[in-house]
Amino acid sequence: MVEHNGIGAAFCITPKVGCTYWLSIFRWLHGDTYGNSYSSPFQMPRYQVHYRPQRIKFYRFDSAKAPTFLADRFRFMFVREPYSRLWSAYVDKFLLPDLWDIDGRNIVSRRPGVNKTSARCFSDITFVEFLDYITSIPAKKINDHYRPYQYVCSPCVLRPHVIGKMETFTRDTKYILGRLNMSWLGDELFVSDKHAKHEISMLIDDVFHEFKYPFYQNCTNSTDLAIRLWKAFQINGYLPNSIEFPWAKNRLVKQSDLKNLALRMFEQRQPSSKRYWTAQKEQALIEAYSKVPDVLMERVRKMYDVDFTMFQYDPYPDILYRKRPHKKL
Questions:
Q1: What is the pTM of this model?
Q2: Residues 222, 75: contact at Cβ < 8 Å?
Q3: For the segment 162-205, what is each residue's pLDDT rounded down to a tens digit?
Q4: What does the alpha-carbon distance between residue 135 and residue 142 come to, in Å, rounded to a whole number?
């Protein structure tokens, strides 16, 4: 939970649903930029937004104190369709290096036989393994990036004035910014190409920042990270699936070279239709879930049952269940 008294607002942080965007705004408004000067909140590196020590006050949500604390504040939160949220979390946290040495370690330890590379790096976790792991432990104990919202924000206690959705993020964010008299912040990032370039650049910076830590230097290299980032950009509909990673796998990839190449390829991509790239992104989601057994899909559905109901998402979306039984197993 983060608040800003100057605008009388309280935002419940929901990872994987634009939280970097909103945390950037709140930290920038407080001048909480780690001694750096930025003309815009969106110039702040993502690792700084999330992990640098904060002067801004973050509150752990306490349902007992919530009514008093939140009474006179404009309250909002964001949610995302559960299946899409889980796939996005997997790509950001396990395809890319983030939680390899935390949940990755736990996931690999469940394998009946573990090879030495996996045991050291935890870098080859599959989407099925990820889903199997998170649905095998109590929902309230899993990482915030994939914990059901009822355990993240307690919506019935928070009673937000606005519940934004990832599927309508631009529209909902513009509305909230208007309510907060900060509409000017919405003009900078909501041009689709500008937003995509920002995401590409920010993610490259974030992953290479992770690479500075000894754990990642001991188990991977810059070329492997570049290949993973390339795949993530294809999954997110930023780069064409038809263009394979263009450099030799034994080449030492520099952060600046990868950024220049990825941004140039994004600008040159064809066709220009947003619908085409949305379809490519959707196809990646479909392919990922096509490998998930029916029994495991049902465990996922049950874990997020309240989220499906509370936020009016279809627990049996046609794109994922077209060839699956719509029945309880």
A1: 0.90
A2: no
A3: 999 999 998 999 999 888 888 887 666 566 688 888 899 999 99
A4: 9
